[in-house]
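re: that complex we talked abt at group meeting.

here r the seqs, copy pasted straight from the sheet so there may be weird spacing, ignore it
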Amino acid sequence: MDYFFFIDLIQSTVDGLLFGTTYALIGIGFTLIFGVMRKLNLAYGAAALAGTYIGLVMFLTFDAHPAIVFLASAIGSGLIGLVVYLCCFRFTPENYPMASLLASVGMLLFIDEVVIHASHGLPYPYPSVFRDAIIEIGDVWVRGDLLFVFFMCVVAMGILFWLLYRTPLGLATRAVSQQPRAAQLCGIDVTRVNMMTFGIAGVLGGIAGAMTAAAVGVLSPVIAMGLTVKGLIVVVIGGLGFIPGAIIAGLLVGAAENIFLLLRGVTERDIYVMLLLFIFLTLRPGGLFGNAQSRD
Amino acid sequence: MRLKPLLTASALALAAAPAVAQDKTINIAGFGASSGVVGIFGQNSGAAMAAAVEKINAEGGVTLADGSKAMLVTQYYDDRCNAEEGISVLRRIASTDAVVAVGPTCSNVAEPLFGILQASVDDSGDTGLQFPVFTDVAIKGGLAGISEWVFRNTPSEATMYDELFAWIRETHPDAKTIYGGVEEDFAHSRFTWYSVMKTAAEKHGFEIVGEAQWLLNDTNFSNQARGMRRAEPDVVAISAHPFTTCGMLREMARQKIEPKVLVGLTSSSSLETLTGCANEAEGIIIPTSFAPVNDAAKAAAEAVGAKGGALDLHSASAWENIMILRDVIEASGIEGTPESLEEDRRKIRDGLAALTEVNGLLGTNKRMPDGEAVKPYVFVNAASGNWAVLHNPGS
Amino acid sequence: MDFYLGLLQIIGVHTLLGLSAYVVLLTGQVSMAQAGFYAIGAYVAAMCTAMFGFHILPAILVAGLVTAFVACIVGFPALRVKGLMLVVATLAFGEMVRMFFFNFTWRIERGGELVGPNGAEGFRAIRFFPENGWETGDVTVFIWCVVAVIMAVLWWVDNSRAGAVLRAVGHDETAAQSIGLNLTAIKVGAMTAGGMIAGMGGGIYAHTVTHIEHLVFGVLLATFAIAYPILGGLGSVFGTVIAVVFIQGFLVEGLRFMGEWRSILFGALIVLAMNFRPTGLLGERMPRLFKPRPSESKLEPKGAE
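got the structure back, here u go
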């Protein structure tokens, strides 16, 4: 193992960990929705993408400051999340999960096509912060914009935790995710909680989408599928319905992806990521922390 | 009763009717991706075909075998870049009175589609479809060889990159090393790096010091750019489509990689790259078979613009295809009746196969025996958000 | 005419894909791996005919058997995960299969040319049908014979005890287990059957398009596979057929005049369908029209001892 390989390994891990926070956010979004509704929202990645495009519109028409663009992306995704809830989960039967699953698939296709139609499929530049800033620690370069992404995602997680553990809405959400019947009996409006959860998850997705676009520098409809698949992998490794699990799993997948890229090249990288998923499924089907929440 | 005048009037009307019914039309269908992520290609091709047909009709149309004139009509069908749908669309076109089809846009539709056509003409044991296809956009190397009913008017990347690297060798004598960047999971970009760019670079004395690979949907290019930075290449060649090209260029800018020469993929010399990353793409050199460098090209660009499309190297092929087909129709003696449909299609195929040279917008296109084309080209580079001609070998 | 025959080919092949997901869905498992099985069937059958000169029928059968074998192996670990985790696990498996074929290169010389899968560039020249005198109509008849046989088998299974057993597992695993049903055998069996059908479908698909590559067998195809039976209704096999006709016939070809709006309408219609008929077009129970007539009842009325 020569010196450069060692440096590459550290570099890949650092980059992967920083970028992995976006996967963590998407994972949290999936997990939140699963927690309260026990259902999978496959339109989540597309909603995040569409919200990011709304932020892009702010950038292109008003040349807005990046902070406004990111905020617009987040809020846009939140609103679209609410629309997804109304169209796919509000009126479909509780006891027939396949209907809402397929409805969310239909929504995914619909949102994707609307975005492509509106943008003519062209890639657009997306503002990023600290684009050229690099912190050099010896031979290891830490990207300034990835540090910002990491920071933003941590802030988002912090706000989420505050919301969940320090507000009445958070209390209601946790109640519904643990015991929906009992929560209803206590007078909690389950529909309202579901709606707010979709909105919050949407906002998280928007932040993840915005950060991904900021890290690449270009926004294109093709990133929706990648976000969705990675998010699903993260949620399974972390344990369905368990938020800290999703965070750790996101970082893990981000780092692992980059390390596999270094070791085996891009054509085999994804095979190894999937193998990692299968190892977790075989050895720890309950997720990283063997949490009992993942009971179906 | 005024029967006599009534009878006379009816007789005159009947006599006049056949004269009105003489207006024949020749139907040239277009197909490709006009919706979806690559929808802009199909939309441009459709507009180019509509503009070309309008021009020909304004000049009187095409002359048929019996000397009469016929107007051209065209319609564009959407295959959404999907192989099954492309095959279905061509079958649909073959069931109309179209005599030839121009398309498809995507190489992943072209390869399956050409496979369902009859491979060799007059091979009675081959039940493949017998319908001529004249491709405008799908550019992956060597596809016309799949069937003798297929002809392509796409630039020969092998020739262009060969000349490009020769020219770089001449104009940058101090450039010795080259590093490649390639989109591995897309057949066209992959083929072009490994089989075209790499071979051409080695042939002209460049030393390949490394290759970076990534996938279509990748969002992180740090590892790849790092390898590139360490190798400190003089030339960097990126064989990828606009999204990942832009991503990689940004990463290169971030890691302060500044090669002396930057080379791109043919199909990236379009609006997409400039919309995505005009700043980072500054100076990238791409060989292309179309730029508005002469009057004919400029006039065509205007006509296509009026139809709502843009004329670039892809849609320019569609325009040229219509013009070439007009000449083939007139030279082959097409009858244009429902009974002669099969024969007309065969005549067009034979006419296209017999061509050795045709007029293109940039000069003379050579037509090869395997159905491919070698077109005149220019080298363009991205300058201040536009594609500017850097070197015109034809002038 | 050729066009309609070609469209029937597409509908037939997609029906096989849908039926493979249907069998697995009956047992309550949502499997996104069917596109992966489809891919395996496609490559195996194509290799059989293009590289080793098999006739199409043994090629399809070999493809079905190989895929069934792989599906059986996948079925066992799939038991350990339930519900929505299975969706992700099978999705990941499908992607792994796709990545495998992305890297898979094996070409042999036949008739002066190299034939076989060529990694990212795909597998071309799968021309058994045109080279052996099969007209479009012949292929369509062949495909629908295979579809008819498989539908008949599934229909017969549905109306026998086996069908009730499958659906019992699908509705409530604990109850099924408590009456003595062997969950492992049933779920793995369903996965194997689904794999076989998908393998045969994929094998036929490869020959209708003459060129296959890894990008075709992605997440989108896996989604279509489960969309057909869910949209059509799990009550009977006819639900899947009707859904395929609706999507491939009406939405894709029939709405062609709508131009760009076709794809947008597609997603919207699925969302609407799931809101207004959540159990599918033909519903969850077998439609009255298709119910077999009850045979002479062998039960005596209660009081008549």
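couple things i noticed - Residues 183-209 of chain C form the longest helix (27 residues). The mean pLDDT of chain C is 89.
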